[in-house]
Amino acid sequence: MLDSIKSHIGGDWRVIGVLGYPVQHSLSPAMQNAAIQALSLPLVYVPFEVSPEHLATALDGLSALNMVGVNLTIPHKEAAVPLMDALASRADRIGSVNTVVFDGGKKIGYSTDGIGFLTPLHERRFQLKGAQCVIIGAGGAGRAILYALGESGASVSIINRTPTRSERLAAEVNQVWPGIAKHLEWADKTEVEAAFRSCDLLVNATPLGMAPHDKEVEWDLPLRTLPSTAFVYDLVYRPAKTRLMEIAEDCGCETMNGLKMLVHQGAESFRIWTGITPPVAVMERAALEQLRSCEA
Q1: Which of 269, 270, 144, 152 is nearest to 200 (CA)?
Q2: What is the pTM of this model?
Q3: Catalytic status, residue 77
Q4: How far, in Å, are 68, 76, 137, 142, 176 from residue 81 at the CA level?
Q5: Where does residue 114 rank: exposed (0-12), middle (13-18), buried (19+ CB within 10 A)?
Q6: Which fold has domain 2-111+265-295?
Q7: Which position among 6, 77, 106, 241 bears the catalytic label?
């Protein structure tokens, strides 16, 4: 597909991209370029591997090159916040940016992770209002998901290997929706097990279990205490069935990986950059094809 795009690139074409470290694993170029090609737009989407210490320089340089914008992935989502000239309200409140628009020399930050996360749950008619949820991870994705769940009327327990991060995040969210968030100590097995036993929705918002290290992962959490009614949502999508999902399915739980979240957050980014609603089915098919080719 990229060969087809390259053969038509001219001086009026503009560039969109994704910045990450590492970034070789990203499915975003495949799905975004599929949407671009389906709509015959004079755009191309490319990956840029940018180390954390070079993020500010990279963003300034890409803005100077008159790029349309970029997505940001691990580890840049939170680090980019102070580098923006302006923040959309959701990104400002969350303190995380995954989509940047370059506009007249200004860098404007957005977060589409919450929309990406919620849309597949809405498609499954999952009832979030009043749900008891557990989020593993308090990074950029975890922050966006916690706020999305708070807006949806759920109660959330947050667990993170660095407890100060989840404790601080719970306190922040409780300032917006008093009492909806609770910090769990990873080492407090009694408290964690109690949260798991009453869990309606478990979300892994960390890279734990991601290929190529998926065979090495050891979940030192009481996953097998999950009720069979719990829904387990692993944001990792490579491999397609993670170790977390396998354990959850052994408990009788319904599971989903993060591919649909990736597609829907990418579709929202596309709308922000272009003002056009992209063909989501085309994006998902391209992402799946790319994922399968990587795993073959």
Answers
A1: 152
A2: 0.91
A3: yes
A4: 18, 9, 19, 15, 20
A5: buried
A6: Rossmann fold (3.40.50)
A7: 77
Q: Please report, in tens digits, the pLDDT of each residue of the chain (296 residues total).
A: 455 555 567 667 999 999 999 998 899 999 999 999 999 999 999 999 999 999 999 999 999 999 999 999 989 999 999 999 999 999 999 999 999 999 999 999 999 999 999 999 999 999 999 999 999 999 888 999 999 999 999 999 999 999 999 999 999 999 999 999 999 999 899 999 999 999 999 999 998 888 877 777 788 999 999 999 999 999 999 888 999 999 999 999 999 999 999 999 999 999 999 999 999 999 999 999 998 887 76
The token pair that represents 244 in the structure block: 């977390």
Helices (H), ranges, the chain: 2-6, 28-38, 55-64, 89-94, 113-123, 140-151, 163-176, 189-197, 243-250, 259-274, 280-295
User: Of 267, 226, 277, which is closest to residue 249 (Cα–Cα)?
Assistant: 226
CATH 3.40.50.720 fits 114-257, yes or no: yes
Delimit the CATH 3.40.50.10860 region(s) of the chain: 2-111+265-295
For CATH 3.40.50.720, list the domain ranges present in the chain.
114-257
